[in-house]
Amino acid sequence: MALLSEQDRQTVRGHLAAIQHPVKLLLFTQTIGAPETALIAKQVLDEVTSLNDLVSLEEVNFVLDRDRAEQYGVGHIPAVVLLTGNEDTRMRFLGAPAGYEFMSLIEAVILAGTSDSGLAPESRALIAREVTAPLDIQVFVTPT
Amino acid sequence: MARESPLIRATCVEATEFMDLSRKFRVTGVPKTIVNGSTEILGALPEDMFVRSVVGLPEDGSPGDGQA
Fold first, then answer.
1. Could you write out the DSSP letters of every residue in A41-90?
2. Does B12 contact chain A (CB < 8 Å)?
3. DSSP structure class, residue A24
4. Which residue of chain B has the CA closest to A73?
5. Residue of A91, A135, A141 lying closest to B14 (CB–CB)
6. Structure confidence by residue, pLDDT tens digits, B16-63
7. Is the peptide bond before A78 cis (omega within 30 degrees of 0)?
8. What is the rounded CA–CA span in Å between residue A52 and residue A22?
9. Which tens digits make up the pLDDT trace of A91-120?
């Protein structure tokens, strides 16, 4: 089932054209007793992967594949982990990336698939200078 | 920011789906950013202020923008 109109699909396809490297979306979910939001997340990600050949989706069973959940620090589902090739971009989405978060997901996919963070030179310099220990950033949002 | 440093992990959390996390971090408005489980940044800040806040520097004397 298509979530996006044909016009929106064209728009998103245009944005995703910036991608230069393969991006893999790991969707952590479970087969039995998955929350409805996991099904929505799957639909959303299927739609995104259908719009660019460099973007692929792999479902990871949160219950059976504990090692990978641990590897990527995934403690809740649905969760989406973005990889560039097989390298962790350390960008994640917790919950279905629908509503406003859909465009955040598209931006994150583009960031993962390009070499440019899009940040101002001053921001890059600040991060290079100040970040000397792990920083875990959680941004709480709502879809509407 | 995660693209700029291998030390940075960035997670976008859908607050209404994860009420346990929202309660834990007392999320009463969005966007709300939590750094290393403690530092709180309320509202959407301009990039320079946001980056400064995340790395633990003062927001540079800008007026409070703490509404959620």
1. HHHHHHHHHTT-TTEEEEEEETTT-HHHHHHTT--SSSEEEEEETTEEEE
2. yes
3. E
4. B9
5. A141
6. 999 999 999 999 999 999 999 999 999 999 999 999 999 999 876 554
7. yes
8. 10
9. 999 999 998 899 999 999 999 999 899 999
Q: In the numeric block, which tokens belong to residue A33?
A: 């007793």
User: CA–CA separation, A115 vs A98, rounded Å?
Assistant: 25
pLDDT at B60: 65
Considering only the beta carbons, identify the residue of B6, B7, B14 that sits closest to A96. B14
Q: Give the 3-state secondary structure percentages of chain A, helix then strand then coil, rounded to 5.
A: 40, 25, 40
Burial of A124: CB neighbours in 10 Å, binned 0-12, 13-18, 19+: middle
- Residue A63: count of CB within 10 angstroms of its CB: 14
- Which residues of chain B neighbour A38 with C-beta distances below 8 Å? none
ipTM higher than the 0.90 cut: yes
DSSP B38: T
Q: Are the beta carbons of B14 and B30 closer than 8 angstroms?
A: no
Contact B1, A117 (CB under 8 A): yes
Return d(Cα A94, Cα A139) in angstroms, integer.
Answer: 10
